[in-house]
UniProtKB/TrEMBL annotation:
InterPro entries: CcoP_N, CcoP_N_sf, Cyt_c-like_dom, Cyt_c-like_dom_sf, Cyt_C_IC, Cyt_c_oxidase_cbb3_su3, Cytochrome_c_Oxidase_Subunit. Keywords: Cell inner membrane, Cell membrane, Electron transport, Heme, Hydrogen ion transport, Ion transport, Iron, Membrane, Metal-binding, Oxidoreductase, Repeat, Respiratory chain, Transmembrane, Transmembrane helix, Transport. The lineage of its organism: Bacteria, Pseudomonadati, Pseudomonadota, Betaproteobacteria, Burkholderiales. Binds 2 heme C groups per subunit. The chain crosses the membrane at residues 12-32, 62-85. Gene3D superfamilies: 6.10.280.130, Cytochrome c-like domain (1.10.760.10). It holds the Pfam family FixP_N. This is Cbb3-type cytochrome c oxidase subunit. Its cofactor is heme c. It comes from the Bacteria. Pathway: Energy metabolism; oxidative phosphorylation.
Length: 305
């Protein structure tokens, strides 16, 4: 990898920054040495506008020049202490990432007494606790709603968390594992294993028939034998496999769209879905409350599925 990287741009940024500062200092020095030449007896340039508006030609006040010097000294001092010269980290080794982590840690410590009340509570008990659900909702809005939506009902390519259909299982421990570790679901392109383009179309209709969705029964009959290419993941009955996140094809939940065209596209091109892991970003206590909130979305009565 070192063959493809270089310190050129870091040095380039540092050089441009320092040259700009010293150029300002040089300009200030040359301006201060330049003698003022006046064309008028009252130190004006001789230019007159609107009959009586004259342009003065006086040197800059010393206090103004002093401000320029202070600004330059401040700039050089800042660049010595903090990052700004390419890859140079500065004497104080400050970074925005470290500052952010320190603020997050401080906030988490301040919230520990709030979460301490939830430590001994089960998922079902947390789901009945108004304060816990209020916190869980905010955690969901800040970390999950971007993909699953503010109402948790998802969209094309993003699972609905408010129904009873689960790719990896809807038990509290399974939801917790999903939040902790994330998920990476991948279906490879299967067209070559299925056969011809017409075989893929027939398979699409057979898949639709599994959930009693509108389909061409003749094509579905012809596509049944082609489903063997899919059975390794989705099962011979098409009910999926939560251990690997293979969707149930016998319900009418379509994550990537319904219909012949959508299914043919999936078979031809495959699909990859990824949910990022939240451990390290959220504390264990936050994940516990968030797990209870997600679980409660499809268990309004508070009973385990």
């Amino acid at each position: 990898m070192s063959d493809f990287t270089s310190n050129f741009w870091s040095g380039y940024v540092a050089a441009i920054t320092l040259l700009s500062i010293f150029a300002c200092l040089l300009l200030l020095f040359l301006t201060a040495r330049k003698k003022v030449v006046s064309k008028g007896e009252d130190s004006t340039t001789g230019h007159v506008w609107d009959e009586d508006l004259t342009e003065a030609n006086n040197p800059m006040p010393l206090w103004w020049m002093g401000l320029f010097v202070i600004t330059i000294v401040f700039g050089l001092s800042y660049l010595a202490l903090y990052p700004g010269l390419g890859s140079y980290a500065g004497e104080r080794k400050w970074s925005s990432a470290q500052s952010y982590q320190a603020e997050v840690q401080q906030a988490n410590q301040a919230l520990e007494p709030v979460y301490a009340r939830f430590d001994a509570m089960s998922t079902q008990a947390l789901a009945q606790d108004g304060a816990a659900m209020g916190i869980g909702e905010r955690l969901f809005m800040n970390n999950c709603a971007q993909c699953h939506g503010s109402d948790a009902r998802g969209s094309k390519g993003f699972p609905n968390l408010a129904d009873s259909d689960w790719l990896y299982g809807g038990l509290p421990e399974q939801i917790s594992e999903t939040i902790h570790k994330g998920r990476n679901g991948s279906m490879p392109p299967m067209a070559a294993a299925v056969g011809t383009a017409d075989d893929v179309r027939n398979l699409a209709h057979y898949v639709m028939s599994l959930s009693n969705s509108p389909h061409d029964s003749l094509r579905a009959h012809l596509g049944k034998s082609k489903f063997t290419a899919c059975a390794a993941c989705h099962g011979v009955d098409g009910k999926g496999n939560q251990a690997i996140g293979a969707p149930n094809l016998t319900d009418q939940v379509w994550l990537h769209g319904w219909g012949e065209q959508a299914i043919v596209s999936i078979v031809n091109n495959g699909r990859t879905n990824q949910m990022p892991a939240q451990e390290g970003k959220l504390t264990e206590q936050q994940i516990k409350v968030l797990t209870a909130y997600v679980w409660s979305l499809s268990n309004q009565g508070g009973a385990a599925k």
